[in-house]
Amino acid sequence: MASYIRGNDKETTIVRRNCMRYLCLTQVLVLRDIALSVRTRFPNYDSLIAAGLIMEHEKQMLEDEKSSFQKYWMPINWVFNLCYEMRAKDKIIGDGLLNAILYEVKNYRDSLQQLFNMDAVPIPLVYPQVVFVATRIYFFLCIFSRQYIIHTGETNRDILVFYMGLLKVAEVLMNPFGLDDDDFECNYIIDRNIAISTLMADKHYGEYPVQIRDHIDPYKLRLNSEISALSPLHKLIGSAALATEGVYTRVLNTISQI
């Protein structure tokens, strides 16, 4: 987005920033409905306005849409229309670049849709209940049924750690967007995406270092530290590369004998 929409004028800069903001807004709208941490942070549209993710007139456009379905598509639609407008004003040079932008935005939208679909179809409640209850009842009964001294050589003495360890892992994986310490840090991801996208679209647009010839010698590479230089270097060689010479020699010997 920042590379294909060219221009340093005020209008183009605003469009670049807003396109990136709309993409981040779409992500937040989706995560609000599947992640408790994001829902707690952004409980309504007013909180999105306070965070700078949406403006008052944009909020009004969302509220004016009376569709009974989720409105995740609206910011994406704004991005598509803005990109078309930039192409009409020659801010996007070429239809190929416009198609590339729309293709990547579509992939972004499809990824969010897949994320939402996975949350919308949870594991049937009876399955985890049976597993969790059955495992705990099993070890509760073992307290009375297995009251004997476990020797050092017993093969089943680690069964509690094995079963309960896998059970705890399964409990965490059931809801990766919860509030536990091991769940996804959705708020950090949102903050990072907003900050980086805004910097790329505005402050660092068209920026690159002064071009000076480097000093890398392709025949004398010195890219190792003192510690890594001591490690052996294993070259990537094809599985048949070393066998070719021997096979070729045998073929020549066979031909000469004939």
TrEMBL record:
<keyword id="KW-0813">Transport</keyword>
<keyword id="KW-0406">Ion transport</keyword>
<keyword id="KW-1003">Cell membrane</keyword>
<dbReference type="GO" id="GO:0005254">
    <property type="term" value="F:chloride channel activity"/>
</dbReference>
<dbReference type="InterPro" id="IPR000615">
    <property type="entry name" value="Bestrophin"/>
</dbReference>
<dbReference type="Pfam" id="PF01062">
    <property type="entry name" value="Bestrophin"/>
</dbReference>
<dbReference type="GO" id="GO:0034707">
    <property type="term" value="C:chloride channel complex"/>
</dbReference>
<keyword id="KW-0868">Chloride</keyword>
<keyword id="KW-0407">Ion channel</keyword>
<keyword id="KW-0812">Transmembrane</keyword>
<dbReference type="InterPro" id="IPR021134">
    <property type="entry name" value="Bestrophin-like"/>
</dbReference>
<protein>
    <recommendedName>
        <fullName>Bestrophin homolog</fullName>
    </recommendedName>
</protein>
<keyword id="KW-0472">Membrane</keyword>
<dbReference type="GO" id="GO:0005886">
    <property type="term" value="C:plasma membrane"/>
</dbReference>
<keyword id="KW-0869">Chloride channel</keyword>
<keyword id="KW-1133">Transmembrane helix</keyword>
<comment type="function">
    <text>Forms chloride channels.</text>
</comment>
<comment type="similarity">
    <text>Belongs to the anion channel-forming bestrophin (TC 1.A.46) family. Calcium-sensitive chloride channel subfamily.</text>
</comment>
